[in-house]
Amino acid sequence: xxxxxxxxxxxxxxxxxxxxxxxxxxxxxxxxxxxxxxxxxxxxxxxxxxxxxxxxxxxxxxxxxxxxxxxxxxxxxxxxxxxxxxxxxxxxxxxxxxxxxxxxxxxxxxxxxxxxxxxxxxxxxxxxxxxxxxxxxxxxxxxxxxxxxxxxxxxxxxxxxxxxxxxxxxxxxxxxxxxxxxxxxxxxxxxxxxxxxxxxxxxxxxxxxxxxxxxxxxxxxxxxxxxxxxxxxxxxxxxxxxxxxxxxxxxxxxxxxxxxxxxxxxxxxxxxxxxxxxxxxxxxxxxxxxxxxxxxxxxxxxxxxxxxxxxxxxxxxxxxxxxxxxxxxxxxxxxxxxxxxxxxxxxxxxxxxxxxxxxxxxxxxxxxxxxx
Length: 372
Prior knowledge:
The protein is 17% helix and 43% strand. It has helices at 7-18, 71-80, 133-141, 203-212, 266-276, 327-336; strands at residues 2-6, 32-38, 41-47, 51-58, 60-63, 65-70, 86-91, 97-102, 105-110, 127-132, 158-166, 169-177, 181-188, 199-202, 219-224, 228-232, 236-241, 260-265, 286-292, 295-302, 306-313, 321-326, 341-346, 353-357, 363-367. Strands 6-2-3-4-17-16-15-10 form an 8-stranded antiparallel sheet. An 8-stranded antiparallel sheet has the order 14-11-12-13-25-24-23-18. A 5-stranded antiparallel sheet has the order 5-1-7-8-9. Strand 23 (341-346) and strand 24 (353-357) form a beta hairpin. The longest helix has 12 residues, at 7-18. GO terms for molecular function: 3'-5' exonuclease activity; DNA binding; DNA-directed DNA polymerase activity. Keywords: Cytoplasm, DNA replication, DNA-binding, DNA-directed DNA polymerase, Nucleotidyltransferase, Transferase. Residues 1-120 form the DNA polymerase III beta sliding clamp N-terminal domain.
């Protein structure tokens, strides 16, 4: 194998693929990136056996072939080379190393055979549809923060994607929950997505997708089966295994009859929560909301460090109510809202609360209360 290409092209592609490679691997080949020359391009592939990312980068190919080299080391070398450098990659005749040359720099890297590199893309994909990158980003941005990190409840360690029939027609919906809060976002179902199986896209896959979105107007092709999902960008393809589990019946926890309405300026509310939570305990992070007609008092009482209160003018005309929430969860949800006014639909101190933008019905958030 022998090829020459621009540093900028190689660095951009390596940045896309090397991130899926874990720094510590018990299987040596999984620490490597597969490099294969083909026609007038260099093909890169990396995997952790759950996610696989491939990308094609233009190159001047003098000799076709393939090999694998340490992914993080190769990325670090290319990153440290001067801008504008021309990089030459060549495997030696006995197949034990690859030489990387750029200007006066020369590196000899240990390689492992291409034949040992795993392939997780086998199998057929039963459904296919296309989304704008901006739409895909919206579904992820609005729900990702609520993904559970509790490994024992592995079926909550991702975003549940499925279609639902509603008043506005069939919608493509994304849902995430950690048992304390729930986030839901949806948009009109694109052609080809009707009848897709409900799938749980893993947390790591979701993070990688966001990093691959560079042009919001780009069309992203999405293919899926019961076990895998594939995202095809312009030159990058990400294939991932899905979480093999059953997502809970989340609709049951979305309150339908909460009749106490609170309208509050989103930015004022977020800033006030942030201020009073400064004295909250790291463990509890509880903030108390005391509601009275036209007024909201936020308070925190921490026996170890002190107390804080702040009063806001709000729109609220129901009976007085005291309810507590985790301040970090309140701030996370407030950060997702886009309009100036947030709407809270409350019932009582022990029941879930519904939160969303006052003029936006494509997203909603459910927050479980805390004892305060």
